[in-house]
Amino acid sequence: MALTGKQKKQSWNALQIVLILIAAFIMLVPIVWIAMAAFKTHVDVYQLKLFFAPTLENFKTVFQAPYHLEQKLFNSTIVAFVTVVLAIPIATCAAYSFSRFTLRGQTVLLVMILATQFVPAVVIVLPFFVMFRDIGLLDTRLGLILVNLSIVMPFAIWMIKGFIDGIPMDTEEAALVDGSTRMQVIRNIVLPMAAPGIVTAAIFCFIIGWNEFLFALILTSKDAVTLPIGLALFKAEEGDLWNLLAAAGIIIMVPMFVLALIIQKHFVQGMTMGAVR
Questions:
Q1: Among the residues of the chain, which ranges form H helices?
Q2: How distant, in Å, are the alpha carbons of 43, 91, 154, 157, 161 from that of 113?
Q3: Which pLDDT score, from 0 to 100, does residue 111 have?
Q4: For the chain, what is the radius of gyration of the CA atoms?
Q5: Residue 159 φ/ψ, nearest 5 degrees
Q6: Cβ-based neighbour number of residue 54 at 10 Å
């Protein structure tokens, strides 16, 4: 018996719902497991218990010797925050120049900036290691900040440029005709209108700097170790301390969940910018 158009549509909608539920289940199960393991004892973490006596001892232990997670938390926060503070103003200026001015070799420059994103990190980590060793930047937060800038700058430039491209030129030209300077136009018109894109780029830069692993693994050893590298410390003679790993993982993930909510808000705002104007 052939299905009618309405029945086909209902079947397709049902299939979509099933696929979404399966995808959500696959993504949420590891997060739920980590959230539960963070409140379990070392004995309970190896048992598939849905009901157990929760404990906060894991979150206390990770900040004590020999782990001292607060040092790694401080390093990650400083590295990610300073990376954003330096990258966003530079990327905004570069994006505005590419968007509003005709530069010699502009297309080549943009392609070169984009091409850096396709270079595997493992290819360039050794040159960074040798260079930082020679100039004394190994195991320093400054070294990690410089590396993170090289990672996030191309991404930030392209993202912010896309938002600035969506701002009508007529608005800026009218302000220039009225006597505003270029800097006044940028400050009073471009930055407020491109704010959703700039904030989104800043948040993504923070997330990239916060989660960066490979360069931090190779370029740090003690003083500048970050949170992702600090997770490797939770080992003992009996094996991996999954309850402590889960507690540290929750500490790492919470800021990312908060930033994800902020990103969602600004993405919606950015996509409706043109419609509002």
A1: 5-37, 57-61, 69-100, 106-115, 121-135, 141-165, 169-177, 182-185, 191-193, 195-211, 214-219, 227-230, 242-271, 273-276
A2: 51, 11, 5, 9, 12
A3: 86
A4: 24
A5: -65, -50
A6: 13
Give the Cα separation of 104 and 81 in Å (integer).
Answer: 33
How far is 134 from 123, CA to CA, in rounded Å?
Answer: 19
> pTM for this structure?
0.84
Domain ranges of the chain: 5-57, 60-276
Looking at the chain, the whole-number percentage of residues with pLDDT higher than 90 is 39
Which pLDDT band holds residue 272 (cuts at 50, 70, 90)? low
pLDDT at 274: 42
Dihedral sign computed on CA atoms, order 72, 74, 77, 83 = negative
- Please give the Cα distance from 259 to 80 (Å, whole number): 13
- Using DSSP's 3-state secondary structure scheme, residue 239 falls into strand
Distance in angstroms (rounded) separating the CA atoms of residues 142 and 132: 10
Q: What gap in Å lies between CA 201 and CA 221, rounded to an integer?
A: 30
pLDDT bucket at 275, cuts 50 / 70 / 90: very low
**Amino acid (one-letter) located at 163:** F
Domain made up of 60-276: CATH architecture = Orthogonal Bundle (1.10)
Buried b (16+ CB within 10 A) or exposed e, 138-174: bbebebbbbbbbebbbbbbbbbbbebbebbeeeebee
Residue 244 CA to residue 163 CA, distance in Å, equals 42
